[in-house]
Each structure stands twice: as structure tokens, then as C-alpha cells.
Write a structure and sequence with these properties.
- ATP binds at residues 62, 117-123.
- Pathway: Carbohydrate metabolism; galactose metabolism.
- Belongs to the GHMP kinase family. GalK subfamily.
- Residues 274-354 form the GHMP kinase C-terminal domain.
- The protein has 377 residues and is α+β, with helices and mostly antiparallel strands.
- The protein folds into 2 domains: 2-192, 2-Layer Sandwich (Ribosomal Protein S5, domain 2); 195-367, Alpha-Beta Plaits (2-Layer Sandwich).
- It is built from 11 helices and 12 strands.
- The protein has helices at residues 2-9, 87-98, 122-137, 144-159, 166-173, 218-232, 246-249, 258-279, 286-301, 306-317, 343-357; strands spanning 15-26, 36-52, 57-62, 70-73, 106-112, 178-183, 188-193, 201-207, 322-326, 333-339, 363-367, 374-375.
- Strands 1, 2, 3, 4, 5, 6, 7 and 12 form an 8-stranded mixed sheet that branches.
- A hairpin with a 7-residue loop joins strand 3 and strand 4.
- Helix 2 (87-98) packs across helix 3, helix 3 crosses helix 4 (144-159) and helix 4 runs antiparallel to helix 5 (166-173).
- The protein is globular and about 60 Å long.
- The termini are close together.
């Protein structure tokens, strides 16, 4: 990272930072409903080498880009002003300045092994890598949660994607060997041990290679439906509807909103149940919760697709203890909790099912719970 920075920008960087992508174990589409989530950070990360500038220029280079440096004036950053991938790092600088932090320009070299479009939060990893680097370069008194909020604001207001805060909180605040039990209303959090390998289990990620893009309007539509349902029920958010009152609430809603509400309410309960199981060290019992969560996303929220449904069904049939789509939906990845001795056969079964259906081969890899955003050097 240091050598490549110097090759592109002609001087040594001030440091190197990293921020990971994430897998959400359970708790999908609950974050913008003030609910509960349970993600882990991935070993896959965006890595960033950086040096401050004094001339007000923000220069960006991505190892995955087109080989050119993007050169922006920090003072001219505004929503809509940047439309390429550079809107994510530029948005973080804008959000820091909007929050009153006196930050200027920088040279940033970025390299990522987080799969893009796979529902693994490559954008949040990019945002949090920039946020943590800027915090250290400018000695800003910001916590991980505060950095996550600023990164979320960058994505919401600058990039224009109405995401919740889970992805940024996972990237900024997760710890190695633990899942992040997060209350998205007040950002209270607890690290819950998640080391399935101790019980002979692996978490298999199945990237369906169906590109996931929550900026295309579909994600915004389901979020708007949830917010409308909460308003009709007279609630601050759907998180405030107890499961015991779900049936009584349904006649007060238009028919098209009932499934959205049912998913959010039952998904919050699935998160709480999952935390209880992990606290007891019963990792295997998480499997059926994953599968039930996928059924809810497929049937009630309708954010799945044929490829993710096939990946879940074929993984479970081949021996996975449970599986579900992870991320915002409309493509992306599936996670499967698998006995270690069955990982290979599950992978082969999913690949065979995809070939039979005429789909491109999925990308398969196992993951462990990794560390959140941090300085590397």
C-alpha cells in the first residue's frame, strides 16, 4: 500500500488504514425501522494509504479503477457534484465538513478485496476506511459509532442511497470473533461471541454474482412502505410494534403493507432469539433461524431473486444447517451455516444447481468474524 501510494502520488503516505465489508447473520431491513441487527465484519476489506494535502484538493486513486486519478476541490463538494465511485469517499469528506470538522484535502490510494455488488457492503467499507483515516490524520475526537453515522450520512445525502446504519456500524465497530448485536435506534451495542469453528461449523458465503444495487429505487420503495405503515399505525417506527400485537394491527393497514410489517416484526424477534442462542454457545441452532429469515425476505418482503432462492434451497438440501440471503436483496450473496465436513459437498451442490438452471457459477468462500475499521501502519 505504501509503495503503490508513492508510485501514484510521488511521496510516502502518512499511514495505512483498513475497513471491512460485512455479512449480516440475521436482522435484514430492520435497521431503518429502528430495529435490531446482528452482523459480523469480514476478513475482506478496503485498504487505504493516505496523506493530507494543504491545497484543498482531494485526489483519489482506486486499484480497481480505470487507472486515473480523480481530482476534486474539497470546497466544491456537494450532493450530486460527484457521480462516479468517487462519490463515496468524497461524501465522507463532505459529511465531516458539514458536521463542523475542519478537514481539508488528501491523497488517497484505495485497494479492496470486498466483492462489489454482492451485498457485502463494499460501499460502507470504502466510506469507513476514509472516515477512520481522516479521523487519525486530523486527530478528530470521534468514536466508531460517530464515524459510522457520518459515513451513513455520506451515503444517504451525498450519494443518494437511503440505507440504514447497520453496514457502517458493522464496518466501524465489529470486533474479531464476535457478532455485533446492535440496537439501531440508540446505537447501543454488544459484542456477542461468534466462533462456530469451535463447534466444527463454517459460515459459507455464496456470491450468486447477480449484481446487487440498492440505488436503483427498489430498496427505497420498500423502505418507504415501512415508513408509511408505521405512520398509519401511529408508531415512531415498526420496531415499536410488539409481535403479540401484529395480528391486531393488520386490519389497520392496506393489504400491500401487511407483509412488510410482518417481516420486520418477526425479523426483530429472530435477532433476539439468535443472540440468546449465541450467548449459550449453541451455534448450530442458528441454522433454522437463517432459513426462516430467508423465507420471510422471499415471501413477505419480496427482495429475493431466483438465484438466491436456489442457493438457499440447494445448500440446505445438501447438508447446510440453514441458509439465507444477506444484504439488501435483489441479488447479492447467500450465507449458509455448514458442518465443516459438509462444506465441500454443499458448495458442489449449489454450483451444480446453478449450472442446471443455466446460471453462471457462484463464487464460494468461507468467512470468520473479523476486526472493524483500524489503522494498519
Amino acid at each position: 500500500m505504501r509503495d503503490e501510494f508513492e508510485r501514484i502520488f510521488g511521496a510516502a503516505p502518512a499511514g495505512v488504514w483498513a475497513a471491512p465489508g460485512r455479512v449480516n447473520l440475521i436482522g435484514e431491513h430492520t435497521d431503518y425501522n429502528d430495529g435490531f441487527v446482528l452482523p459480523i465484519a469480514l476478513p475482506h476489506a478496503v485498504r487505504l494509504s493516505a496523506a493530507p494535502r494543504t491545497d484543498g484538493r482531494l485526489r483519489l486513486y482506486s486499484a480497481q479503477g480505470d487507472g486515473r486519478v480523480t481530482d476534486l476541490a474539497v470546497a466544491e463538494l456537494a450532493p450530486g457534484a460527484v457521480t462516479s465511485w468517487a462519490s463515496y469517499p468524497a461524501g465522507v469528506v463532505w459529511a465531516l465538513r458539514e458536521a463542523g470538522h475542519q478537514v481539508g484535502g488528501a491523497d488517497l490510494y484505495l485497494d479492496s478485496d470486498v466483492p462489489t455488488g454482492a451485498g457485502l457492503s463494499s460501499s460502507a467499507a470504502l466510506e469507513c476506511a476514509v472516515a477512520v483515516a481522516y479521523r487519525d490524520l486530523h486527530d478528530l475526537p470521534l468514536t466508531g459509532a460517530e464515524l459510522a453515522r457520518l459515513a451513513q450520512r455520506a451515503e444517504n445525502a451525498f450519494v443518494g442511497v437511503p440505507c440504514g446504519v447497520m453496514d457502517q456500524m458493522a464496518s466501524a465497530c465489529c470486533t474479531e470473533g464476535a457478532a455485533l448485536f446492535l440496537d439501531t435506534r440508540d446505537l447501543s451495542l454488544r459484542q456477542v461471541p461468534f466462533r462456530p469453528a469451535e463447534q466444527g461449523l463454517e459460515l459459507l458465503v455464496i456470491d450468486t454474482r447477480v449484481k446487487h444495487d440498492i440505488g436503483d429505487g427498489s430498496y427505497a420503495a420498500v423502505r418507504a412502505g415501512c415508513e408509511r405503515a408505521a405512520e398509519l399505525l401511529g408508531l415512531p417506527a415498526l420496531r415499536d410494534l410488539p409481535a403479540a400485537e401484529l395480528a391486531a394491527a393488520q386490519p389497520r393497514l392496506p393489504a400491500e403493507l401487511v407483509p412488510l410489517v410482518r417481516h420486520v416484526v418477526t425479523e426483530n424477534d429472530r435477532v433476539l432469539t439468535a443472540v440468546e442462542l449465541l450467548d449459550k454457545g449453541d451455534f448450530a441452532a442458528l441454522g433454522p433461524i437463517l432459513t426462516a429469515g430467508h423465507a420471510s425476505l422471499r415471501d413477505d418482503f419480496r427482495v429475493s431473486c431466483a438465484e438466491t432462492d436456489l442457493a438457499v434451497a440447494s445448500a440446505v438440501e445438501a447438508g447446510a444447517l440453514g441458509a439465507r440471503m444477506t444484504g439488501g436483496g435483489f441479488g447479492g450473496s447467500v450465507i449458509a451455516l455448514v458442518p465443516r465436513e459438509s462444506t465441500e459437498q454443499v458448495g458442489k451442490a449449489v454450483t451444480a444447481a446453478f449450472r442446471t438452471a443455466g446460471y453462471a457459477d457462484p463464487v464460494l468462500f468461507t468467512v470468520t468474524a473479523a476486526e472493524g475499521a483500524r489503522r494498519l501502519a
